[in-house]
Amino acid sequence: MTAAEPRRDLVLLGGGHTHALALRMLAMKPPPATRITLVSDTDFAPYSGMLPGLVAGHYRFEDTHIDLRRFCSGRGIRFIRAAVTGIDRKRRQVLLAGRPPLEYDLLSINIGAQPELAVPGARDHAVPVKPVGSFYQRWQALEARVRKGGSPRILLVGGGAGSVELALAMRFRLGNAADIGLLSGDSLLPGYNRRAVDIVRGHLEINRIELLENSRVTRVTEASVECGEVAEYCDELIWCTGVVPAGWLADTGFETDERGFLLVDDDLQVVGESGVFATGDVSVQRQHPRPRAGVYAVRQAPTLAHNLAAALAGQALKQHRPQRRFLSLLSLGGRVAVADKGVFCASGAWAWRWKDRIDRKFMAQFVESAPPMAPPVPSSDMHCGGCGAKLPAEILRQALANVADKYPGTINLKRLRDDAAVIDWPAERLVQTVDTLREFLPDPWLMGRITALHALSDIYAMGAAPHSAQVNVCLPYAAAALQRRELEQLLAGLAQELAAANCALVGGHSMEGPELSLGLAVNGSLAEGPALDKSGAETGDKLILTKPLGTGVVFAAAMTGDAPGQAIAGAIDSMLRSNRSAAGLARQFGASACTDVTGFGLAGHLLEMLARKQQAVLGEVPALPGVAALLQAGYRSSLHPGNLAALAELVMSRKNAMPADAFPPLLCDPQTSGGLLIAINESSCGALLAALQSGGDQATVIGELREAKGKHPRIVLA
User: Fold this and answer.
1) Alpha-carbon distance 289 to 322, whole Å?
2) Domains of the chain by range and CATH?
């Protein structure tokens, strides 16, 4: 084992300000022999200080959100998108919604807090500002309604800085097209000096925002807010009050304060929990409690980064002393702000420019190029090849046992102990396929699911039903505990998709090597009637593609940290869409030919479908989100040149022969777990297309087959 190979798992929950900054610091000097994983329930972490500017229209979405996938991919950090549902202290596991638990050796929690919606009716009728992602979607919908001629009354509940900034931002964005009011349970802006409060009052009055102080909300209905005996009518209610911790924290057994927030010491470790840290809004420093504000979270980051590295190295931890006061720059709708710190207070356009520079400088840290990865440290340790490369038996035993408990009908441990699989074959006609993928996603559970779907697709494309499978897995060199964790995640992902396909895992082989790879051999049985193969396409058939293209270019860009998180998320969602339903519909509606689009790209697989005297006329071909921009920027998969070379002299435009380098690159992009390409007669095309779309497939007609005359090329671009 080399010094660069991981022996420990550092897991960070939440992509908030503190974690983003700490990860940036850790990436500059990575802790040795440590695998770092960031878990977040969203791909984009909002910078709360810029939310009012986003609402006002001063900033774009990408200016105000950290693209966590992109940030992590260029820094050797695993990113897992999942919602946390709990923590098992004894097993040192993070419990995740809809997927296997994640084990840790060192844990850091920075998940923020949730809106307090205890007022009767608030949970059903109010729009909480947090989480910011769902609030911003509601805001966009509200703005669209106003632009179409609506004139709603908008009430914001809360008298703090956040609600004031949002109210003024909404007025700036909507102009006079809405009636806006602000309900404060107590006096306005508690903690700010009197002059700052007077300046804000003046701006609220100038902007015709009704201020109702000492109006504590007691009940919310669909059309009103009740403050004692007084009811205020509203069309939209924005909830900007206090926050509460995530409910599952109460079940962890960690030390909390009376409201349920995690108590931490000055080294930022949870009280009484060695190796568990917490920062930001989810925590309270018991010796130095402070109000919940982003500036405190940001200033915890250097201490957290140092202490995580120190804990991994067995060194002394630093103590964090939060400041008592901080400069507050509160935006006032337009490009004007008020500055407040202690007795100091001033306002004007200069204050907004000051705030804007600070905010943009903060966000620039997360879009700059990632630092170069540190080269592996040489070691005299040797890894054997041949049979010596096999995984230790205990790793296999533990991983298989843990996964088999959850998928007893898919994984039979007794059968897996034999030297070879004995299969009770249900039909006379056997269909077999084999596929192997190298790691392109730093999430073993997703790799397991996608590999299974990629391999099963070949069975479905033939019109067959999967029956049994064998796996071949190569795990990266690492400590035994980490390899066991990795294998469990991979097998759980495989088993989930195999179970959904009624396909049993009957055997396999495992080994270790320099990188992760995962292969699957699948057996399927073909029902009575002809196979749904590539060779039956007829002249006049329409061509249907069931998924957009572009996974190859997305992950080519992701390898250099240049793929936007939205593009990666869109590609993952597409790859996780099974072709099972689409293949069944293709057979049901009498498709003449079918193939799945994978490594040779759409053009390569289309050529395999064409008969000698046929040519395909293609129209517009759909691409995944973000793919067009990546192709235009020059990103290509490593298989793209080979795919393109194979198509030379086979394609042309309407009038003139097209050189290979002018062929649309999207059509040569290799796909992982791509969609089906279906040829079907014109009379049945509409019905099949409608059935595919109603079932959830992004199916579209991309062209048709015509008779080829003379030496005309096989593929024509309409």
Assistant:
1) 9
2) 8-41+82-113+245-324 (3.50.50.60), 122-242 (3.50.50.60), 386-525 (3.30.1330.10), 542-717 (3.90.650.10)
